[in-house]
Design goal:
Elements lengths: L1 E8 L3 E9 L4 E10 L3 E3 L2 E3 L2 H19 L4 E6 L4 E4 L15 H13 L2 H8 L8 H10 L3 H5 L2 E4 H10 L3 E3 H4 L5 E2 L4 E2 L1 H6 L9 E3 L3 E5 L2 H7 L5 E4 L4 H7 L9 E5 L2 E8 L6 H5 L3 E4 L5 E8 L2 H12 L6 H10 L20 H11 L8 H27 L6 E4 L6 H11 L3 E3 L4 H13 L6 H11 L3 E3 L4 H15 L9
Length: 496
């Protein structure tokens, strides 16, 4: 039996799990979970990466207690963010959070030097202010001394792998999220970075998912009690791992990896970089086994987490499940927001912003928590459906079902309303797709599984999805029309 340790780092929390593969089924046991809380220092929002690393080591010790012997270890995380390492292998500064405002402010300057269409044609990645290229561009424009001190740029999972075993590489699926990688050549778009004065010495070698990096270093092996466990670069972008574990039943089906973000997409065999894809701002992220993920980011359940935080600061504590229950009892299809409106980009008083958006677009303002959360969940379902229509048009596809994976798969309202809004069946699960995909690629690297197709057969044998058939489609069709009108209006100014 192969025993695998997976570290999954999300924007809200991290976790460590043990997987056991007996040749027929893959079982997962979560052994440690911890919060991932960013820290604002003066005007910059950072990830507290050293605390995250300590929590990961605690989790790996828990994995050793749970499993005894572990064959391999791998990390996946959100994309785009990075740490800088100097020539002595030391961290130059804490990684900057993708929601820090400097990136957005730098975007226009970068696009002046590298026009938007050229950047898209070279990288295939949607234009979003969170992308790595804009953080690097901001640092170069400000002559940030961290760039001069740095020798290597490591994305978050690569940074942890470096601390585990000393391998300084960038894994393909996460490298593609940066908007610094050229899928046509299979390497970094170094010439584009040179045009915005980013030193290309920072760019490490890119490795494919399933690359065996090295055994744990002696100090980490001793501290975690995992001995000679091997560090493997899996699909280190969490969406790459999640999609690897989607048990597709029919070709061309849509996936939604639903959590902090909703990643809505199709798995394709080559990047789709066309006029239509550029106009729709679709992204082409690398996948496992030579695949790509044609998708669009939709701001997801982070909106509800921010509402919870705002209400808690007012002394009104609600669990996530309590809020979903309140939403279920609230009036249906009253008002909608565009989850991707810039007003919702930054942390803040999200309930007030939801009300402001509705007032700005001439809709009733949701007041109580149930109404606010219902507005958000229905808007997410409608945004999912709208995005699926765009994907189908650009790719010339006719999807027949939707697979919802990740934490959002256990949200019955989100899944049911997505089926209604899209008019397509939803198969919800596995919830633990990211962990399962991480472990699946580890098993492939160790020779336990021969291919991605075999791995997905394994997932089908291990997990039974929950099915939601579309209902009340006429009501939701009318809602889609109202939603389209609301999101087409000019962007709401933040703070209004």
């Amino acid at each position: 039996m192969a025993t695998l340790a997976a570290v999954d780092l999300g924007a809200q929390s991290g976790r460590v799990a043990v997987g056991r593969f007996d040749g027929e089924r893959l079982g997962v046991t979560e052994v440690h979970r911890f919060p991932n809380v960013p820290v604002r220092v003066r005007d910059t929002l950072y990830w507290d990466i050293l605390r995250v690393y300590r929590d990961v080591l605690d989790g790996l010790r828990a994995a050793a207690r749970e499993a005894g012997h572990v064959d391999s270890v791998a990390v996946d995380s959100w994309g785009v963010d990075f740490g800088l390492i100097d020539s002595k292998g030391r961290l130059v500064q804490n990684p900057v959070h993708y929601r820090d405002g400097r990136r957005a402010r730098a975007m226009d300057g970068v696009l002046t030097q590298v026009p938007a269409r050229e950047l898209y044609d070279r990288t295939g990645i949607q234009l979003m202010p969170i992308n790595t290229v804009f953080e690097l561009g901001a640092m170069a424009a400000e002559a940030d001394p961290a760039l001069d001190a740095a020798e290597t740029m490591l994305l978050i999972p690569d940074l942890l792998h470096y601390w585990f075993c000393g391998a300084a590489t960038s894994e393909f699926t996460n490298a593609t999220t940066t908007q610094c990688f050229d899928p046509h050549t299979g390497g970094w778009a170094a010439d584009l970075l040179e045009r915005i004065d980013v030193p290309t010495r920072l760019l490490p070698d890119v490795v494919q998912p399933g690359t065996r990096l090295a055994p744990l270093g002696a100090a980490v092996a001793e501290e975690t009690r995992l001995g000679d466990a091997e560090v493997i670069a899996v699909a280190t972008h969490d969406t790459g791992s999640a999609v690897a574990a989607v048990p597709f039943r029919q070709p061309g089906s849509v996936f939604i990896s639903a959590g902090t973000w909703s990643l809505v997409g199709l798995e394709v065999q080559a990047p789709v970089i066309t006029d239509a894809a550029f106009a729709a701002n679709l992204t082409n992220e690398g996948g496992v086994g030579g695949t790509f993920r044609l998708l669009r980011n939709v701001t997801g359940l982070w909106l509800i987490h921010e509402c919870r935080r705002a209400w808690a600061e007012e002394g009104r504590e609600h669990s996530f499940d309590q809020l979903v229950a309140l939403a279920k009892d609230a009036p249906a299809l009253q008002s909608f927001i565009d989850p991707n409106d810039a007003a919702f980009d930054d942390p803040g008083d999200m309930p007030a912003r939801v009300r402001a958006f509705c007032a700005h677009t001439g809709q009733p303002e949701p007041v109580d928590p149930g109404a606010v959360v219902r507005c958000i969940l229905e808007s997410l379902a409608l945004k999912h459906a709208q995005t699926i229509d765009v994907l189908a048009s650009v790719a010339g596809a006719s999807p027949r079902e939707i697979h919802v994976v990740g934490g959002g798969a256990r949200n019955e309202l989100l899944c049911r309303w997505t089926a209604d809004a899209a008019g397509l069946p939803v198969l919800a699960g596995p919830e633990e797709a990211t962990l399962l995909g991480n472990m699946l690629v580890q098993a492939m690297a160790l020779g336990e599984i021969s291919s991605l197709a075999e791995g997905r057969e394994l997932i089908r044998a291990s997990v039974a999805p929950t099915a939601y058939e579309p209902q009340e489609t006429s009501k939701w069709q009318e809602a889609k029309e109202r939603f389209a009108g609301a999101v087409a209006l000019p962007t709401l100014e933040v703070g209004t």
